[in-house]
Design brief:
Length: 543
């Protein structure tokens, strides 16, 4: 008889084979060949060069559409295509100007796969709004996207750039720069946070942008935060609009659709909310240990089986009524119920130097930026579970991290604080950051002991901040939803807010703020919404 682990191994092998077969079929259906060229210095057989060879060979074996040639930097083709760094990987250089500095491993593998597919298709599949913006570009744009193998936001941004280069090969070129492979280049651009995007050497985006916001930033050569389309907004009519694509919103979308409601989930930033930034999750039932981004990917692909997700779209306005109107940066929704699952955004320290040096050594995402600080000295500010999880993650990445906490005991779960001790991560107790120092990048911090009053200056290369979250209640506030004393949405035990037809779930409600509680709240709210729409309590009250 087969053991469970043998059966698990067989299932994993079968799904891997299935995936490879689908990939092979996808490549074989592509209309264009995808020639890849790698240029290396003579004798430069480093880890990136070797990894590139292995990865490209694996793809080449999968499809005859992919070809691979390797040349030394002194070959005339290097001159023809202006290659000046080793190793550089060029993707279909006769048609596009897309190059890779480093090797596409980890999260970067997703960028590489999508790049190959778009190059093979010969089209970008960008939406009409984005194409309209890209059409307006009339002078060259040389984009550099700084990425790392562990950054979950990087694929979205790098693929935006690749798709722009495929749409406008006449004017748009892209370099995907792995910051670990190219530390000098990252240093030169002060790109100490990923993804970070430059066009013609001007910063146009920090973090991942929606495709329209990216295109607009590229057109204007300055970072944009919102894209308001021309007047051709579409109209979507349904039963429920869920605002927020974190665990609460995704669970609500699944439950709503399964109960027969027509629902939509709208998310302005990265799907998954805070979970996408959590290095490791160890308390979500069913997973002993899982990367936050992996868990998000699983949830999103599950939700997509049921519910339509509008990613990279910002809700601008909600007009309560019957129906309720939800206006976004892209279209208008007419709906019967709205669920606010808007989550929470990271809290700032509010000290001098913090905003000026943000992305230049000040970071709120250890998962994204940790690898940049390998072998360097940083502090992690905070005493909750996030600060401790992230300090552990940094330490495991080879970063010399010290925890700085304003009290003499931690708020984090005991299992985590024990790991902190076991990993010998030093803690500065009763210590507050007064100022973050540095001109172009973080060079140190000014600390004060709030018991003794003693001031010290510590030389550090990075300041990671994980001091909790503020609920995202702007939309709720705008329509007059009552908040509690702590600023979270006031709601009843059925997740109803004070306005009929408007509900809340997840971190925006306050409470335990766990992934498992957020998904539970999302599911419960969706079930209430189903019951209420079948039998509206506000009509019963009116009678
Ligand atoms: P948190 O639990 O609210 O902790 C915030 C920490 O930052 C506290 O230690 C607080 O200090 C400190 N702080 C707040 N404002 C500060 C300021 N201005 N200056 C210096 N320090 C400041 O936030 P969190 O750690 O992000 O966790 C949020 C929620 O997610 C929690 O419910 C947590 O349990 C959950 N979470 C769970 C896990 C897990 O289960 N593995 C992992 C991550 C997060 P005081 O202690 O003095 O108030």
């Amino acid at each position: 008889m087969e053991t469970t682990s043998e059966m698990d191994a067989q299932t994993a092998e079968a799904s891997q084979e299935n995936f490879m077969r689908q990939l092979r079929e996808t490549f074989d259906k592509l209309p264009n060949d995808i020639p890849l060229y790698m240029f290396v210095d003579r004798g430069d057989d480093n880890v990136y060069t070797q990894t590139n060879r292995q990865i490209v060979r694996a793809f080449r074996e999968m499809s005859s559409r992919i070809t691979f040639r390797e040349y030394y930097m002194d070959n005339e083709l290097a001159g023809k295509w202006n290659v000046d760094r080793s190793p550089t990987l060029l993707i279909a250089p006769e048609r596009y100007n897309i190059r890779w500095l480093g090797a596409p491993v980890g999260e970067e593998g997703r960028i590489f796969l999508e790049t190959l597919i778009f190059a093979g298709m010969g089209k970008s599949n960008l939406n009409q709004q984005t194409l309209g913006v890209l059409d307006k570009i009339d002078t060259p744009r040389n984009i550099k996207v700084f990425v790392s193998a562990t950054c979950p936001y990087c694929p979205q941004q790098a693929v935006n750039a690749v798709r722009a280069a495929i749409e406008r090969p006449d004017l748009v070129s892209v370099e995907i720069v792995d910051i670990q492979a190219e530390p000098e280049l990252a240093n030169q651009y002060s790109a100490f946070s990923v993804p970070q995007t430059f066009a013609n050497d001007v910063l146009i985006g920090q973090g991942a942008q929606s495709e329209e916001v990216f295109a607009l930033s590229l057109l204007k050569l300055e970072p944009q935060t919102i894209f308001i389309p021309d007047s051709d907004a579409e109209l979507v009519e349904n039963d429920l609009v869920v605002i927020g694509g974190g665990p609460a919103g995704l669970a609500a979308g699944i439950y709503a659709e399964r109960s027969g409601l027509k629902a939509a989930v709208i998310e302005r930033d990265a799907l998954g909310g805070q979970v996408a930034l959590t290095p490791i999750v160890e308390n979500y039932p069913g997973f002993t240990s899982v990367g936050g981004k992996t868990l998000v990917d699983i949830m999103v692909s599950h939700a997509l089986q049921y519910v339509q997700i509008f990613a990279g779209e910002e809700v601008l306005e909600i007009e309560p009524g019957n129906p309720i109107t939800v206006k976004t940066s892209r279209r208008e929704f007419k709906t019967r119920a709205v669920l606010l699952a808007t989550g929470a955004k990271h809290r700032n320290l509010g000290v001098p130097g913090e905003s000026r040096l943000s992305g230049k050594g000040v970071s709120y995402c250890a998962t994204c930026d940790g690898p940049l600080f390998k072998g360097k000295k940083v502090i992690m500010v905070g005493g909750g579970s996030s600060a401790v999880t992230e300090a552990l993650h940094l330490s495991h990445q080879g970063v010399n991290v010290t925890l700085v906490h304003r009290r003499d005991s931690l708020r984090a779960q005991e299992v985590l604080t024990k790991q902190l001790e076991a990993n010998h991560i030093p803690i500065l107790w009763n210590t507050e950051v007064q100022e973050i120092l540095g001109r172009e990048r973080v060079q140190g911090v000014e600390l004060a002991n709030n018991r003794s009053g003693e001031q010290t200056r510590l030389e550090v290369d990075g300041v990671f901040i994980a001091i909790g979250y503020e609920p995202s209640v702007d939309l709720a506030r705008k329509i007059g939803i009552e908040l509690n004393e702590e600023g979270f949405i006031k709601h009843d035990e059925k997740h109803r807010t004070g306005i009929p037809g408007i509900y809340s779930a997840g971190d925006v409600e306050g409470g335990y703020k766990q992934i498992v509680t957020a998904t539970g709240q999302g599911a419960a709210a969706a079930m209430t919404i189903f019951e209420d729409l079948m039998n509206p309590y506000w009509l019963a009250k009116a009678n």
